[in-house]
């Protein structure tokens, strides 16, 4: 039913906007996001993918394929390491689906799942960069200087964007019901 819903337009546009904003906010707020020794990494793409899973209803967006596509774009443009985001984004979609089976769809459970997703994403990202020698920060430094500020920033995003995103999905799904 995805092909017949308004989500076929809303979801990819929102994903593109999230991807664009991740880079743009990091550029515009670079002095805030990346002030030594702290780094805050914007993950609006992850937020969009996770919330889309919870708000898609019975439409069933092909999230894994979109995650692969956005992973390709991120790898080509942002990371310089081919294959990292192609693997991580679909992995987070799978993790979200797996965790969601064990929790009800409440705001607090969704924020908890998003928190776990962020931790796994950032730790795997750190580990990959550490293994190939791009980063030399210790795990403790990473946890304090990058993971903690990144979690804080993205949990604020979650709280601020949860209801507007839910409203967009609800309207798109409601219009599908009326047609």
Structure description:
- The chain is 77% helix and 0% strand.
- With 179 residues, the protein is mainly alpha-helical.
- The chain has one domain (2-30, 40-171).
- Helix 3 crosses helix 6 (107-131), helix 3 (44-55) packs across helix 7 and helix 5 runs antiparallel to helix 6 (107-131).
- It starts with 6 loop residues before the first helix and ends with a helix.
- The model has no long low-confidence stretch (mean pLDDT 90).
Quick recap of the structure?
The protein has 179 residues and is mostly helical.
Name the features.
single chain; 179 residues; mainly alpha; 7 helices; globular; membrane; Rod shape-determining protein MreD; transmembrane helix; transmembrane
**Content-based structural category:** mainly alpha
Shape: globular
Radius of gyration: 16 Å
Name the average pLDDT.
90
- Percent range of helical residues: over 70%
Distance from first to last alpha carbon: 13 Å
Largest sheet: none
Fraction in beta strands: under 5%
């Amino acid at each position: 039913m995805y092909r017949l819903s308004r989500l076929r337009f809303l979801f990819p546009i929102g994903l593109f906007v999230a991807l664009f904003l991740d880079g743009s906010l990091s550029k515009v707020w670079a002095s805030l996001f990346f002030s030594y020794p702290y780094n805050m990494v914007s993950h609006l793409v992850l937020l969009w993918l996770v919330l889309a899973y919870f708000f898609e209803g019975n439409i069933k967006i092909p999230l894994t394929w979109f995650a692969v596509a956005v992973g390709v774009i991120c790898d080509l443009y942002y990371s310089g390491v081919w294959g990292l985001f192609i693997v991580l984004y679909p992995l987070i979609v799978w993790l979200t689906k797996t965790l969601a089976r064990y929790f009800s769809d409440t705001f607090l459970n969704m924020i908890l799942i998003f928190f776990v997703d962020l931790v796994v994403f950032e730790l795997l990202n750190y580990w990959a960069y550490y293994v190939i020698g791009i980063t030399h920060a210790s795990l403790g430094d990473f946890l304090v200087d990058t993971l903690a500020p990144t979690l804080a920033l993205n949990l604020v995003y979650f709280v601020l964007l949860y209801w507007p995103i839910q409203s967009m999905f609800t309207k798109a799904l409601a219009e599908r019901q009326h047609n």
